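Field reference: sequence -> structure
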Amino acid sequence: MKIAVTKLEEKSGGTHELFRRYGHEAVIVSTMRAAPPADPAPLSRLAGMISKNKIDILVFTSALGVEKLFEKVKPGKNVRIVSVGPKTAKKVEEYGMRSEVIEKFSSGHFAEYLGDISGKTIGIARADVPNPELVSSLTAAGAIVIEAPAYRLAAGDSIVEVLDEVDAVIFTSAKSFELSGFAPEHSKKLKVIAIGQKTAEAMRKHGINPDIVGNGTLEDCLSQL
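Structure field:
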């Protein structure tokens, strides 16, 4: 199948190869663009705390977050770094550091994975998309959380322009769906796939019921096709 997939240009590496392994062709559509955060102060604050050894655990939910923070500062060896997914971990390695890798991301599971974090200060470099569930789960476990938007997601290309060329579409986040221009009438001739439950929920709110809901990875979505 020829499949449109919403990916940031900066995070699309390896996508074509992955789809080919499953016998499909990927058409990457960047419905979002990475832009500097609206307020650079939180990221500068986090970088300053890292330079003064005031961060115990550093969490990255994307490779782009790694890149944007490490352009400002590199943590010492005493900082525990946790990456969501292998691509994020690989980006950490490119800067000469190692991180623990958590494959699946959910707010409750993440807090459980970190173990005893009472009194620990946790820094999170992320997209400018708040995750109050994650923060509340960490603070409920006794941690101090310092969040810093490392970049923001702005509108990019409309996915509508490629729909006549593809057999299916995979939305990789709620935000990438909401900025895509995709409407209920577009789903009549295509197989529509949500990478995970949050993306599926966003789609349903707009009258689109996905044919497939993955477990948060492209691999799972492709395996279900």
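Note: The chain has two domains: 2-31+156-224, 41-153.
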